[in-house]
Amino acid sequence: MEIFNNIGKINSAVAVLKSRGLTVGFVPTMGALHKGHLSLLQRSKDENDISLCSIFVNPIQFNNKQDLEKYPRSLEEDCRKLEQADCDIVFAPTVDEMYPEEVKIKYDFGQLDKVMEGKHRPGHFNGMAVVVKKLFDICLPHRAYFGEKDFQQLMIVRELVKQKNIPVQVIGCGIIREDDGLAMSSRNRRLSPHERSIAPEIYKTLLWMKHQAGKISIDQLLQQARQKLTSHSEIKIEYVEITDEESLLTVDDWDSVRNIRALIALFLGEVRLIDNMRIK
Ligand code: PAF
Q: Which residues pair with 275 in a beta bridge?
């Protein structure tokens, strides 16, 4: 496995591989790797000749300074895991390498980045889109793999690729869960044992919502889902939404759109967790 920190060097190395006719799969990450990331890598390995993983905690997608400072960093351990998983190339740049100058780019994703995560984390999606576009330009992948846990992110990356005509196929991959249903996330390691024991309630609530879909009104479903979650005093809800999967706009009638997805964001103690599920 080769590790690059320099943009010019990785860009030339990938260009050489592509000139030999090899296909390149890309898994962008912020490190603190878990089985969810490794499943993205496995999918890339299954579908491409070369698999490339980036590790970069992107400061401009954090709207909260404390969140950025507390974000887990474990570069050496991450590289060991990637080596074991047979990753071919790692790109782990510094902040100065990625952002030698202040970033001024502003994207317009319409309603997609105004709701849910976009509403609660101002600037988050613009910062995410800036780094993803830059990583695509540097790593030149044929295919890029994103987890559905960050469902809104996946939709915005698809929109970015469409708007900027980026020649990359964006592949959404299903959520990988712990045995008790908690969606795998780098943030889970910040949960106390007590908080960790409550965290599967998010998944249980989503399952319950799926089970109730179409049986009670959307308003009732939302109200009862919120009640279930807040029966645990450690949980502070940011949002529970039921949306059209395509537009991410809220729906108020079960039959108005084809696919309906429930999305949840909450604080468990100090740790912010998100999860989602197609419920219809
Ligand atoms: O999902 C993430 O880990 C990040 O948002 C990403 C896509 C690596 C961009 O920093």
A: 264
